[in-house]
């Protein structure tokens, strides 16, 4: 229907929304986003918003309305839209080569369609390596409290957030949780000693489980939905040492941080880590096509290639839409834009401004307990009391988000059911943000905090 009211009604009547949108539908005006340009989006009633979330979930890294990406996708679809990923493709080969240039030490790219699927692929490779090369041992996969890896069964088995408890079980066996690394409420005197202790807690889990049973450790470089948790000093270096010591493969989930979000191509590169698997999705094609990648090393590839029992055939997956060529065509142009427009540099510069503005807000608003982040990826944790660090009630956090929306700025919040997970405002504007955009975002937050909390 052309009539927007009818369209909103059709949406209300027939679309099963993600997250808990339906709860909101009972109480607030439903919202349909119909257009986007640069940093801005418009809803069905014509209201304009500055989007500080890159499409709600850290995705539209290069901004809305990129006709060059649309053209690249169109050209590819007209030339060849699809052939199953078991064969090679022009955009697939081009993009893999370009991606690998940015990821020293890694050589192999497996295409699929979502972050969840990319993570599943890595988990399955760990299991195959255990079966063929470790006599069935080293099959366990460690994941971290507060981290998130997707919506499929394996990814949920590796979920460090309350979703794991949403009556979906039983899960596949062999997924084991390690403690989070949020320093804010820790009792350590300094970041360095906490960072080492948080990493050593992973070693303790490996020792408890038995090092010969643990195959991989899967971590977000910065925990995103679980609170924008930046790793404490010394953490990553120690994690790497532990993985090397116990021959545990390191899988970094770059679904949020990948493709420039932190001001580097990948978040792990900020911390000097050498991963065995890197997974990516969201910002990979900025939402212009569905694509994800599982990237790994030649050493891992060789384990499959040289498998005596069944060389290479063992690697049996075929994902239908992993062969859809719109994905790599869009990803290639997305990457070209990031380079040509120096968006990594812009992310670094605008990220510093965002940090400064948030720290200035913190001086005026006692509710901001801590500001954490890197590049254009920040969280402001809201507390009821700075001394006790008691989290601010979820309803108040949501009221701040709603007030910003009323002011025409869309921000996010960690919106989970457990206290301590639902009280962080999340900011992730597109990497094209200007100083004026950043200032407008933080001005709106300041106004919203005053309006909601006084
Ligand atoms: N990993 C992380 C860190 C994520 O934030 C997400 C999505 N929010 C995923 C994986 C899953 O990606 P997708 O939704 O594309 O399956």
UniProtKB/TrEMBL annotation:
The keyword Electron transport does not apply. InterPro entries: Aminotrans_3, Aminotrans_3_PPA_site, PyrdxlP-dep_Trfase, PyrdxlP-dep_Trfase_major, PyrdxlP-dep_Trfase_small. SUPFAM superfamilies: PLP-dependent transferases. Keywords: Aminotransferase, Pyridoxal phosphate, Transferase. GO terms for molecular function: pyridoxal phosphate binding; transaminase activity. Its cofactor is pyridoxal 5'-phosphate. The keyword Transferase applies. Belongs to the class-III pyridoxal-phosphate-dependent aminotransferase family. PANTHER family: AMINOTRANSFERASE, AMINOTRANSFERASE CLASS-III. This is Aminotransferase class III-fold pyridoxal phosphate-dependent enzyme.
